[in-house]
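The freezer alarm interrupted the setup, so I double-checked each line after restarting. Inputs confirmed:
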Amino acid sequence: MAKEQDKILQKYTGNEYKYGWVTDVESDTLPKGLNEDIIRAISKKKNEPEFLLDFRLKAYRHWKEMKMPEWAHLKIPEIDYQDMVYYSAPKQKAGPKSIDDVDPELKKTFDRLGIPIDEQKRLAGVAVDAVMDSSSVKTTFKEKLAELGIIFCSFSEAVQNHPDLVREYMGSVVPYTDNYFAALNSAVFSDGSFVYIPKGVRTPMELSTYFRINAANTGQFERTLIVAEDDSYVSYLEGCTAPIRDENQLHAAIVEIVAKNNAHVKYSTVQNWYPGDKEGKGGIYNFVTKRGKAQGNHSKISWTQVETGSSITWKYPSVILMGDNSVGEFYSVAVTNNHQQADTGTKMIHIGKNTKSTIVSKGISAGYSNNSYRGLVKITKNAENARNFSQCDSMLMGDRCGAHTFPYIETENRSAIVEHEATTSKIGDDQIFYCNQRGINEEDAIGLIVNGYAKEVINKLPMEFAVEAQTLLQISLEGSVG
Amino acid sequence: MLTIKNLHVSIEDKQILKGINLEVQKGEIHAIMGPNGSGKSTLASVLAGRNLFNITEGEIIYEGKNLLEMAPEERAREGIFLGFQYPVEIPGVSMMNFLKTAVNEQRKHRGLEPMKSSDFLKMMREKKDLVEIDSNLTNRSVNEGFSGGEKKRNEIFQMAMLDPRLSILDETDSGLDIDALKIVAHGVNKLKSSENATIVITHYQRLLNYIIPDRVHVLYDGQIVKSGNKDLAIELEDKGYDWLRKETQAG
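Predicted 3D structure, all chains:
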């Protein structure tokens, strides 16, 4: 039987990462290394106001005093922070206003990624901020959204045009002191997206950001900030890819969400950074801090993530349930194959009364990979009638991978009801054979089984992306049956 | 339709089938009986193409083709159906989606277009009525949380949907109460035609009260030691497998 597994494994591991090419484009790049001069240079390039430079420098000084966290179930090779470029932007005219100003090479790049930034070609239902390396290339449908008072632009533009909003909210959910990677990001972040939904406005289309790493030896440090005023709604999606390279590249991002009274923010991620090759060489280190503050009464923040890429993932999209009757949700599918490692989960911090959180985590491990769920449900003293339901499922493919669950529950209020369910399953030869015997080949059988397992989460994605996510799951796992 | 010649099969150096010969014509129902460990389920698995075994000798010809060269999914598309002894659960995959995929694979193999959703639903309804299956089974995930009896009935329902030429039912009667047994037998009888054939593998004679076989074979220690008509099953029930053991040893 072992022989048979090997054969199947071999048959499919030839699958190539589809997005592994590089765009040949002239870049404006700062020298390698991290110090206060580099930070000042980034700030200067972006023509930032004084407060932002101060923020960066404070973060940097704080970061220097910190140590890399070691509590995750991950083996992270030492990272030389001086051997990395912190700013590299494709050269183009400052702040392109029309599609004709965008370098055709960049246009082609995003076309090839299936994310055309030309509004004429774009699905009518989605607005995109396209970010390559350290800067935003183009934001679509900006004018149309502006008619409703919605601000959707790159972070750099927000700094120029809406400095008061940036100043008020940046760091209000994830302070630069929060953790090692958050401090690093706060010091060197270069771009990202900014979303502001005014009171009572429902966003008429999906907003999305597409992150592309292109330059070599460059870290990507973007920041996203979403502010949803009272009674507003936004559904936001991010996607990401990177070229195939033998060196590891660091991606350390921050996402902050603020939801006021009755506001609902739905944030979905399809993460497909280059995962490294089948021997574990190369790939992106994806160390991300994502947190939402459900500040208003009856506010709601939902995270949905489909994680298939990156060689190492460290991320815990969380919700602070401050408002009374606020709701936090986390739906996750995390796939690891070959030598990938993931330590991912969520934190639900219940503070307001009658708050409710739901956690559904589906891990899939294959090859030699390690996949951990880590979650905290915290019910603070005054959080009367808090409810949490957590379900953590793990699926194993083959016998060389690992699945781990680290659920933490801290309850300081006796009225809380916290439920936790966990299962572990295996894609068995017998399941595959059952499908084969009904005329379904192995590839399609894996697709069926994995998508069945992940259905609860996939169903939470916006329709346009659910199909893509299904295909991605199947591709990431082909050949990992055992 | 099916010819098995001198089939020898082993698993990890242990010889399980030791020279099986069997000839099945279309329109026939064959019963294969035998004690536990005689190799009945191995034979079923080998016919369906399960990859756990070494075929050390012999051949299987199905509809003029060398069956042993065909992948399991190919055999299925060519009309071989295995009713599993232990049907597998596939959580989150609806019966509807599963069967639609299966039916369309078969159609593709025959050069036909995928079935329209409305036609597929209609076919589901008809087949459900034909084999008298509760309609809620098909709204659930494949075998998930099904009782033993429901799983077996679901196998018969899938058999009806896929309309196979050769069905192999591996101990489909095991673990069934008498009502469920009747439903399963009724399904098999309904689906019988002059164009298809069925191999019923069973430990007990009682299923053969409801499915009347044309031929009965007794598998013992990896060989077919006796073949006969339906009366052989009754004789076997009376005298037990010990009778055969003695007879085989004497012979």
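Quick read of the result. Chain B is about 40% helix and 30% strand.
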